[in-house]
């Protein structure tokens, strides 16, 4: 389950921000997770509390904004929604979409004091 | 009450009750020290720079904010936009590895597969076939044991074992440490054998030149569809254990079609680490890619 090490990376980023932005407590951590990214929101939530113990993130609330997938169709020359990496264009059916959005995995925002 | 530092809410009340307003001077702007007497009759001096702003008998800490200053009733809570890729830390280590490898003209490949696809056997065979041509070193990643590194060392190549413990993949930081220990010969070839896992290692750039995914014919031909992230990230796929094809129902064409559906730019070679079938193609691919990456002089032993 690589979500454990991904959450460790999140907390390391928060720790870096603590030094830079001088806060002592984190109330809320907001992530942006693409539905086509390699991170599973439920698995991130599952391990967050355990990984956060003893760190700056202990006791903070994890919020995850999921970002829908989107791909470019070479035939229609338009973007279309994409719910899996191998999705075909829903208009011309059969032509595989080239992913243009939905693989983001970012620390978006912190609420601190 | 001090309207800048917020100190003395309780003291003011106490002073009002006592009918004795506390003298309170703010001769300078925030950030300067100031003196004031509280209603409890105790005058004291405190610098505003200190993070902890504590009055005798009071546990309330008003001044732990950014500038050690706050207005009473207002929370110190604030929201910070960060907008940073969570893997940026790994990516920074990976870029450091990549430039160190490039400087010493070392051509590095990241080998990925599920457990048992034959990565180590393939490496042992490749090393014995290429060791007169290249100086080869290997970084081995496994949860536990140094069995793979031991197997590699038997071929005469230098190897470092990384045990990831609970970890399911190698990351660029671990590889950086292994590189320090290994210091691959300039102009040499470096294989990084990742932890056997078709999921997680796809997400972690190690600083390699290319990713090579090994799929064996004893696995299903639909593996690329079931684990698309890995095949989408790879540059070359080696379809290993081809010597077993006569005994299996494995459809090579269907497997290649599945892999190309996930990644139309993937190159595919069918090989057998046991018989050596198809490996000449792999060696030619290494030769060509290394020459492109490092220039024609590199690798000349």
Description:
The complex is a heterodimer of chains A (113) and B (301). Chain A is an alpha+beta fold and 113 residues long. Chain A has 2 helices and 6 strands; from the N terminus they run αβαβββββ. Chain A has helices at residues 3-21, 41-52; strands at residues 26-34, 61-67, 69-73, 78-82, 98-101, 105-112. The two termini of chain A are 32 Å apart. The mean pLDDT of chain A is 90. In chain B, strand 1 and strand 2 (43-46) form a beta hairpin. A 7-stranded parallel beta sheet of chain B has the order 6-5-7-4-8-9-10, with helices on both faces. A two-stranded antiparallel ribbon of chain B has the order 1-2. Chain B is globular. Residues 1-72 of chain B have low confidence and may be disordered. Chains A and B meet through helix 1 and strand 6 of A and strand 3, helix 2 and helix 7 of B. Strand 6 of chain A pairs antiparallel with strand 3 (78-85) of chain B, so a sheet runs across the interface.
Strand-helix topology:
The complex is a heterodimer of chains A (113) and B (301).
Chain A: H1 3-21, E1 26-34, H2 41-52, E2 61-67, E3 69-73, E4 78-82, E5 98-101, E6 105-112
Parallel strand pairs in A: 1-2
Antiparallel strand pairs in A: 1-6, 3-4, 3-5
Helix pairs in contact in A: 1-2
Chain B: H1 9-18, E1 34-37, E2 43-46, E3 78-85, H2 88-103, E4 107-112, H3 119-130, E5 136-142, H4 147-153, E6 158-163, H5 172-182, E7 189-193, E8 210-216, H6 223-226, H7 228-233, E9 236-240, H8 252-262, E10 267-270, H9 279-294
